[in-house]
Amino acid sequence: MKKALPTIALSAAGLTWLLHAQGVIDTQAASHSTAASPTTAPPSDGAPPPTETPQSAPPTTHAPASSGSRTVDGPVIDTRYGPVQVELVVSGGRITEVKTPEYPNEARRSQLINEQALPMLHDEVIQAQSASIDTISGATYTSDAYEQSLQAALDSAGFVSQ
Known about the structure:
Oligomer: single chain
Order of helices and strands: HHEEEEEHH
Structural class: alpha+beta
Strand content: 15-25%
């Protein structure tokens, strides 16, 4: 019995360190968080994640950057790991550029995932010329929110996919 308590304590400390090292626990966000901020840990009860809904006003359109091109911001979509927003440039009836001004990047794991996923999503949009893109495995929340923000921006721009 004398060895059980230290073993349990060390196991708990080791598990905490491991989760922190993998980015599952974000100690900076925990010290500055409020009740309304998104969590970085999955729910412990196995319940499905909360539905992602637009956080901001409808998409905005910027003045033409050059002849016939427009920049359109999609709404910010909240996910359990952080917000996602897409900004696109439409020129000559084609999507010529897609940027992601907001994406989950607080936790180290989110940074690593989105470092790989965002360029892939960008390429999918440019190739598909629509919001009908594949979900990136391992970046499901980001992919879904990216698609929602993109579709709203396309709708705002009056873009008809080809």
